[in-house]
Amino acid sequence: MEYRDIGENIRKYRNRLNLTQDELADKIGVTWEMISRYERGQSSPMNQLDKLSNALRVSLGDLISDNKIENYEVPLFVKIPKNFVFKKENTTIYYSCPKWLIKLDPDVFAIELDIVSKNKYKYGDSGYIFISPNADIKDSDLVLINDNKILSIKDSKYDGEKAIGKVMMQEILL
Prior knowledge:
This protein is an alpha+beta fold.
């Protein structure tokens, strides 16, 4: 994977805030040398992306974006597949998503909100959620759950069924 684009964004957003490499390093708990390596694309900043986006006051998408408008096709599920297996061979429908989602997880897929049960985490009745089956799930994340054969969005602290994947983004249609 090419880290040069992310490094350029780190430098751009750091300079926008008038932060030195040392000041940014203090904010995320690394050395200024590591910030320099991130900015030059010589080290992977992937484990620090959340901290970097918070410290630089930008979204994760802005931080990892290569600033090109490119969309990629991902499997779209408009009904629950047999055995709740969300793989591209279980659908014939595809939907566009931003490149940054594909960079985070090439296996990301989209689900139409109509097939997800209503709960406090579902913001609308029409639209799509993008799910990463391979993402690292942290305590503050929302996840898609097979809840007794019903798809639900839950807080990752939910101690029931195993998560199908992490909710990465929701696109609401008005």
